[in-house]
Specification:
alpha/beta, 4 domains, 17 helices, disordered N terminus
């Protein structure tokens, strides 16, 4: 048996050990310096949440501080991860085509990985100059480089939280299994990056802007395989021929009937070569071909649903389309309802109110939201919701008062409804704020208001 003295000594020894352990625990949990303590307080007040747990046996309360990443940290991490993915894709494509990857490409991805925007941009421009040099193999995997650079550029241009809100707004609107067709740089590159770095379902993403580029179609085949059927080279050539036939007929009409409205579109550059064959150039012509190729893409994938963020207006995408958050769903098979039209107007008015309600923003952000609001206004107008289209065009104009596409759409839809005085006032207001657009305004007056 232990003596009372031995028991008392053992008890004191156990209490001493317990006290040392407790002091050690407190020392570990507390900041080691005044600077660290201040930093910890800042984390709690600015970017952290506190979780408190109580130990029932001793009554001590221990607070665990968990750092919550800022939007800037989240975006930087996503860009870094996306760069890693695109570097790996470059190497996979290079192996597929049995070509090498130049050191300059590796340096580009190193700069992106380090978050060095200036160096990333410099190296990208150098690579771009070498793209079509004799003996260059860059074209075989150029799209992977372009997407990495495009994402980095958008990260540079957008406030981080608004970038996340914009991309999530589009991606969260997509239905399960839906293919996403991005149009603008923001709609394409931001959503592609977030789609591959956020977790959850990864959607097939592409852009309609590059469908006329055969190397891009090869890129899509390489990364998506049998999941997405893309136009063949023969189908692409067929789309070119069909577009040239159409533009030739419209050009002949304009030459034979000079007093009638022009059928060749503004900025649809058409010339007749020495062999009497038409030659086209410019973004309007390219998008005319992409319009046809988009229809081929839809036809070749009848079992897939598609969400579109519009770049240029593509007339054949409007029939059967319906609003889907900030974008629209193609070939729904149903006519748009009045409720959908009203919801679209309310959606963009709320988005505009939030953007204009304060906080950091940029011209890139405002232009991007204005463009997407204008795209859905086009959809509303095409479905004969003139009043709702006018409101959506006006919202787009409020977001970006210099928007040529918004003033064009708004003038057109007002004139088509016989509201000539209101259309004239809209043009007067636009010209007052944008005196450098005198020619544009005069052209709109002539087209839609005549001599009024």
């Amino acid at each position: 048996m232990q003596s009372d003295t031995t028991k008392e000594a053992s008890s004191r020894w156990l209490w001493l050990v317990a006290g040392c352990v407790l002091l050690l625990l407190v020392a570990v949990l507390m900041p080691s310096s005044k600077q660290e303590q201040m930093a910890g307080q800042a984390q709690v007040s600015n970017v952290a949440t506190a979780e408190t747990g109580r130990a029932a046996s001793d009554g001590w309360t221990i607070t665990h501080v968990h750092h919550v990443r800022t939007a800037e940290e989240i975006v930087a991490e996503k860009l870094k991860k996306f760069g890693v993915k695109r570097r790996a894709l470059v190497h996979r494509l290079a192996e597929h085509y049995e070509v090498g990857v130049p050191l300059e490409v590796e340096r580009f991805f190193d700069a992106l990985d380090a978050g060095n925007w200036d160096e990333t941009r410099r190296l990208y421009e150098n690579l771009k100059q070498e793209l079509d040099s004799p003996g260059s193999d860059l074209r075989k995997y150029w799209r992977a480089i372009l997407e990495a650079y495009g994402a980095a550029e958008q990260v540079h241009l957008w406030p981080a939280q608004q970038l996340l809100n914009y991309g999530d707004g589009i991606l969260n609107a997509l239905k399960p299994g839906m293919v996403y067709i991005g149009g603008t740089d923001s709609g394409c590159f931001i959503c592609t990056m977030l789609n591959e770095t956020t977790g959850g379902e990864e959607h097939i993403t592409l852009t309609q802007n590059a469908l006329a580029d055969n190397s891009y179609l090869q890129y899509l085949k390489a990364i998506y395989g049998d999941s997405l059927a893309v136009p063949t080279e023969e189908e692409t050539q067929g789309a070119f021929s069909k577009y040239l036939d159409d533009v030739t007929q419209r050009l002949q009409h304009d030459e034979q009937f000079p007093d009638e409205p022009k059928q060749v579109l503004p900025n649809e550059n058409v010339t007749v070569g020495a062999d009497s064959k038409p030659e086209v150039s410019g973004p309007v012509a390219v998008m005319g071909i992409n319009n046809l190729l988009t229809q081929i893409l839809l036809q070749k994938n009848p079992d897939l649903s598609f969400g579109l963020e519009e770049s240029f207006p593509l007339s054949t995408t409007y029939p059967g389309a319906a609003p889907l958050g900030p974008i629209f769903e193609l070939r729904t098979g149903d006519a748009m309802t009045a409720d959908q039209a009203n919801q679209t107007v309310n959606y963009w008015q709320n988005e505009a109110q939030q953007l204009q309600g304060g906080g950091e923003t940029s011209s890139t952000v405002l232009q991007s939201f204005s463009h997407d609001a204008n795209a859905q206004a086009n959809l509303l107008a095409n479905n004969n919701f003139a009043s709702e289209a006018s409101q959506a065009y006006q919202t787009a104009l409020n977001l970006w008062p210099s928007s040529i596409e918004a003033i064009t759409g708004l003038t057109r839809v007002l004139a088509q409804q016989g509201q000539f005085d209101q259309a004239g006032q809209v043009l007067d207001n636009f010209l007052q704020n944008n005196p450098q657009q005198t020619q544009t305004v005069n052209d709109l007056r002539q087209t839609w208001l005549g001599r009024r």
